[in-house]
Design brief:
alpha/beta, two-stranded antiparallel ribbon
Length: 205
């Protein structure tokens, strides 16, 4: 499994109330890593410290790792009243191949059967499934507002070759949610939710 703590180094991500997203992402991701490894899983991290890693490097590293799934951990930001957890899979709007952009509707006739399985419907379907399992488990583990499993065109879930999700663990801009996000206890609940979702996903595959 490939785990990507979003942002890092010179890129703090969202910042509110003196809390930087990059730190929350890393802390939760390291807890996810520990849980997975305690069950015998092999975990590859995009970063384990406060480093900036370009998005293209993250996706390339993930693809080279031959990981079964990809999970990117982020923290949300919006108006102060916004709250809750949401998890994204790739929308399938387009996929870049070198200088080209490939529309999903054209993949069936443009890709070989092997490539289509990797980049097309199968990967998208499995990504949606993974996002739904992780979203449900995180909400169950934390009691946070369920903002749902959604789709979006984020680089790291578009350019990776395996089932991939990006989860937003809460809003750093919401004072009450931020107060929970910085605590070890709540971070453990989030990590447990991600772990349980991943475990449930593999149980059905």
């Amino acid at each position: 499994m490939f785990v990507d703590p979003g942002h890092g180094g010179t890129d703090p991500g969202a910042v509110s109330g003196g809390v930087q997203e990059k730190d929350l992402n890393l802390s939760v991701s390291l807890k996810v890593q520990a849980l997975l490894e305690s069950k015998g899983a092999e975990v590859i991290m995009s970063r384990t410290g406060d480093q900036f890693i370009p998005l293209s490097t993250i996706s390339s590293k993930a693809n080279a790792s031959n990981a079964d799934i990809f999970v990117s951990v982020h923290t949300n930001s919006a108006v102060a009243s916004a709250t809750g957890i949401e998890t994204y899979s790739y929308s399938g709007a387009s996929r870049s191949f070198g200088m080209f952009s490939l529309d999903l509707d054209k993949q069936n006739e443009s890709l070989s059967e092997g490539d289509f399985s990797t980049f097309g419907i199968d990967r998208l379907t499995q990504s949606v499934k993974l996002s739904e399992f992780v979203q449900k488990s995180m909400v169950n583990s934390t009691g946070a507002v369920d903002r749902g499993a959604k789709k979006q065109d984020f680089h790291v879930i578009r350019e990776t070759n395996m089932p991939a999700i990006l989860t937003e663990i809460g809003f750093v801009t919401n004072p009450s949610e931020r107060a929970k996000l910085v605590t070890d206890w709540y971070q453990n609940q989030l990590a447990t939710g991600i772990f349980n979702g991943v475990e449930n996903y593999f149980k059905t595959n």
